[in-house]
């Protein structure tokens, strides 16, 4: 039984890396989109600049990325 737990424990740890990386990328993109939508001076210029729709889209993406990061860092329940 102990060997089975070690195998599944390692598998779970490796499988959490993908969602963590994806969450960081989505969070970063959401923050950039929000900054562009707000027309902040440090944000890169694009078609999204000063468009309030990108503030909402960026905030939703950033929130989704944060949730994904939180879920990937959560320890599995012992069961």
Short description:
The chain is built from 3 helices and no strands.
How would you describe this structure to a colleague?
With 79 residues, the chain is mostly helical. The chain has one domain. It contains three helices and no strands. Helix 2 packs antiparallel against helix 3. It is elongated. The two termini are 13 Å apart. The relative contact order is 0.19. The model has no long low-confidence stretch (mean pLDDT 84).
Average of the residue pLDDT scores: 84
Number of helices: 3
> What's the domain count?
1
Beta-sheet strand percentage?
under 5%
Fraction in helix: over 70%
Key words describing this protein structure:
mainly alpha; elongated; 79 residues; 3 helices
Helices and strands, with pairings:
Blueprint: H1 2-15, H2 17-37, H3 52-73
